[in-house]
């Protein structure tokens, strides 16, 4: 998107504002499906947690994707957005058994990552097809919070517990139709991915009735020009070849599934915020914006560095700024970074604001969550209204304390 389009959206819808470019989402989806075009059957399940606005879900439905969900509420959002239940996979971790039952009754694909839950579910619902989430014990991912396939992780059933899995499957007579893994986000080295894939192939050989192998996600996207990213095209070539060979060996048609979030929506998102104050101290020039980690927590939580552009002044002299929010604790988006000269009232644009940005926002400091706009066919469609004071009071019970 061009700075002038973003600027006009900020002036039409106010700030702070999230903007998502539908064309970029579609082109990332096409890039992924093209990279795996040599695979007989491919399924892309968009990870709803990355960005869950129903307009975005509808866009993915239009593109032909399925959904990856982690809570019953995400399942319900997917159904609300018009997805057939069989296009939704539900991969919970640590939820109640009742929630898993509810998802099963809604008809979505259940993915289980715990031996006791597997046993309980198999005993109760032996006819419901189940996918098993394996923990391959591979350390991969950009940050410890998002590296989830290692030995100390709470996710998945350890690959070393395969004999237990097989005993449960045999005793309950349950039907296993898929095997899944997700090692972490921001994986740079595709060799790590291919190594983990071999573990999944080995695990798959234990089951005769599989319909799909789900390789999770973890594709790294660039955050600035020249940044390293997962080479999707190379991964597509190598993994498709290996998958096709495995399918022959296995002797049954299989679908190759992925569940990306970041790869599909990160670069499509822009976060726009207005500079309230420019504050010169003895050491630093702060640009203080009308937002904070309540709206965009990734820099404080994961140390992510979002490229920040002054879209009100794209040609001025560059200066060093520390960009901060208005939250009453340390709330830094970027330290001493070069930005075209900033004046109070300018609009700053944070790139890569599609994934895990709005979906992780909160009302901390009793601030309203921002509006969201979908840039679709050259027009800005409002897909979520900015919150109001009524939203802050909603669900609060005003008791009399006499
Ligand atoms: C099980 C699972 N699948 C998919 C994803 C999406 O990962 P990414 O956004 O890196 O593509 C996640 C991210 O947390 C996940 O936990």
Automatic annotation (TrEMBL):
The modification N6-(pyridoxal phosphate)lysine is found at residue 49. Keywords: Amino-acid biosynthesis, Decarboxylase, Lyase, Lysine biosynthesis, Pyridoxal phosphate. It catalyses: meso-2,6-diaminopimelate + H(+) = L-lysine + CO2. It holds the Pfam family Orn_DAP_Arg_deC. Gene3D superfamilies: Alanine racemase, Lyase, Ornithine Decarboxylase, Chain A, domain 1. Residues 24-266 form the Orn/DAP/Arg decarboxylase 2 N-terminal domain. Pathway: Amino-acid biosynthesis; L-lysine biosynthesis via DAP pathway; L-lysine from DL-2,6-diaminopimelate: step 1/1. Signal peptide: none annotated. The keyword Lyase applies. It is an enzyme of class 4 (lyase). The active site is at 328 (proton donor). Substrate binds at residues 298, 302, 329, 356. Homodimer. Belongs to the Orn/Lys/Arg decarboxylase class-II family. LysA subfamily. This is Diaminopimelate decarboxylase. It comes from Flavobacterium magnum. The gene is lysA.
């Amino acid at each position: 998107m061009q700075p002038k389009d973003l600027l006009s959206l900020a002036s039409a819808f106010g700030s702070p504002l999230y903007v998502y470019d539908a064309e970029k989402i579609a082109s990332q989806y096409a890039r992924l499906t093209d990279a795996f075009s040599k695979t007989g059957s491919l399924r892309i399940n968009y990870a709803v947690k990355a960005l869950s606005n129903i307009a975005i879900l509808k866009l993915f439905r239009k593109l032909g994707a399925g959904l990856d969900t982690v809570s019953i509420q995400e399942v319900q959002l997917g159904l609300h957005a018009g997805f057939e239940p069989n296009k939704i996979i539900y991969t919970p971790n640590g939820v109640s058994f009742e929630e898993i039952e509810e998802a099963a009754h809604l008809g979505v694909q259940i993915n289980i990552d715990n031996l006791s839950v597997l046993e309980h579910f198999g005993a109760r619902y032996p006819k419901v097809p189940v996918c098993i989430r394996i923990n391959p014990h591979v350390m991969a991912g950009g940050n410890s919070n998002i590296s989830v396939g290692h030995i100390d992780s709470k996710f998945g059933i350890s690959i070393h517990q395969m004999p237990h899995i097989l005993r449960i499957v045999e005793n309950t007579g349950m039907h296993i139709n898929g095997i899944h893994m997700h090692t972490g986000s921001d994986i740079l080295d595709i060799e790590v991915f291919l190594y983990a894939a071999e573990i999944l192939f080995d695990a798959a050989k234990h089951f005769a009735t599989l319909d799909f192998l789900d390789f999770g996600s973890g594709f790294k996207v660039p955050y600035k020009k020249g940044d390293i990213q997962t080479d999707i095209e190379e991964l597509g070539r190598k993994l498709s070849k290996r998958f096709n060979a495995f399918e022959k060996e296995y002797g049954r048609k299989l679908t190759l599934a992925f569940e990306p979030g970041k790869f599909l929506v990160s670069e499509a998102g822009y976060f726009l915020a207005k500079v309230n104050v420019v504050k010169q101290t003895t050491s630093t020039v702060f640009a203080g914006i009308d937002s904070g980690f309540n709206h965009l927590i990734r820099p404080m939580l994961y140390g992510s560095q979002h490229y920040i552009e002054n879209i009100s002044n794209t040609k001025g002299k560059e200066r060093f700024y520390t960009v901060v929010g208005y939250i009453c604790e340390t709330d830094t988006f970027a330290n001493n970074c070069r930005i075209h000269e900033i004046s109070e009232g300018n609009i700053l644009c944070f790139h890569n604001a599609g994934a895990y940005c709005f979906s992780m926002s909160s009302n901390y400091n009793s601030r309203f969550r921002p509006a969201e706009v979908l840039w679709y066919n050259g027009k800005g469609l409002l897909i979520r209204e900015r919150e109001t004071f009524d939203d802050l009071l909603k669900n609060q019970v005003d008791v009399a304390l006499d």
